[in-house]
Every structure is written in structure tokens, then in C-alpha cells.
Write the C-alpha cells for this entry.
Amino acid sequence: MNDRARVEELIGRPPQGDFVVVVRDASGDPVVVRNAPLLHDGTPMPTRYYLVGADLVRAVSRIEAGGGVRRAEAHIDPADIAATHDAYARERDAAVPDGHTGPRPYGGVGGTRQGVKCLHAHLANLLAGADDPVGAWTLAQLADDGVDLGGLLPPPPRMNEMT
């Protein structure tokens, strides 16, 4: 199965923009994708890194359902969260095509401007190679919950190629 078909299966709908798989599990299944900053119709895509691995999505959803977003915000310095949002936005915005005059993506991780919106997006950002303290906090929660992450393959060098 090709990556586009597998990601469609994992997210339950056709991807609306270009992406590249940047993290896979040991079997080669996609875990994290890097999205283009604009969807095929030109709509801004604020979420640069998206968690698609089914087991991790479920495990992180359980953490969020148990108040994980509030707990993460309480444990992490707001200045560190803001720095993560700024770095994320800079990388995503650098990928906007030259000469683009339409609407642009906004915010930082998960499209938020401050605080924590989505542990999934922060974990995806961390797994893709960023320094993300919220992603690291989420990873520690997963380890405490006994989630095995040993089969993840490290991300390849960053590139602009999209699927």
C-alpha cells in the first residue's frame, strides 16, 4: 500500500494536501506526517506535523481525555511553550511558496498562538525531531502508561519533498 492510501486509511478520509511521512514504526507504517503549509485548494494548513499512527493517536487521546492538556500547561514554563510555537511557525512559514498572496497558516503547534491545544501535534513535532517540551512531557506520560515506543524509526533528514 502506498503512503497516501495508508494515511487515508489511518485518518479516515483522503488527505486534503501534500505530505511526506517523516516517522515510521518498525514495520514501515506511517506514524508522523509533515504537511505542506497549504491544502490543495489553497486553504492554510497550520498543523505542520500530524500524528497518524493509530496506536499512538489512541494513547494520546486517553491522556488528553484525562486532563492532559491542562496538566502539561501546569508543568511546562509558558516561555518554553511560546518558544516551541515560534520555532514551529517559522519552519512552517518558510515552506509557504514564494509569491503566495492568499491566506497563510497561523499560530504555532496545532495552530494555537499560546498555551497547549493538542498533545498529538506536540508529540508529532517532537518525534519529527523538534525540541518540544510538551511533546517530551507527553512522551513521558506515554512511558508511565506503559506504551511501547521502541519500534519507531527516527525521522529522515528534513526535506521539502511532499507526497
About this structure: The radius of gyration is 15 Å. The first helix runs from residue 3 to 11.
